[in-house]
Structure prediction request, 191 residues.
Amino acid sequence: MKLGLAGLGRMGGNMARRLRQGGIEVVGFNRGAEVTDALAREVGIVAAHSLEQLIAALPSPRVLWLMLPAGEATEQAVQRALLLLAPGDVLVDGANSFYKDSMRRASLAEGVGVHFVDAGVSGGIWGLENGYALMLGGSPQAFARVEPAVRVLAPGPQTGWLHCGPAGSGHFVKMIHNGIEYGMMQAYAEG
Prediction:
């Protein structure tokens, strides 16, 4: 499998490392070219210096995974990607996006024939070593396209991930996950 990963920060960079360790080919793009180039030297990703270059380097049908901050950065990247991707491609939003935004983005993607997967990703800086918990929403066809990467990113091929249902459900489950996690952290702090 070969996929594009846009956003090579703390989580995205370590996800690229884990994917490469698992034999997944990665074309990576980060707005800071030095980050992209360093990761290319370190683990052998294919460095792209624009979203256009990243998408052009992927075989059709493409898989583009965004690991950007939730909100405006992700919104702009989704809008741009939908102009560049072709029918049958898959766009994955790995941000902590609001689930209703994911449902809206899935509808926009569907309108141009692109599959959409919303991926709640948990694991922080420890995900590289321990694997990431992945909560994914999208059609069964879209999920099937990203499943090989999911099995590499997760703690084990059969554990730590769930296809939760249609678009929006992955980010909904991640929202509940965050609420529980932050509630526990607050309880620990108060204790």
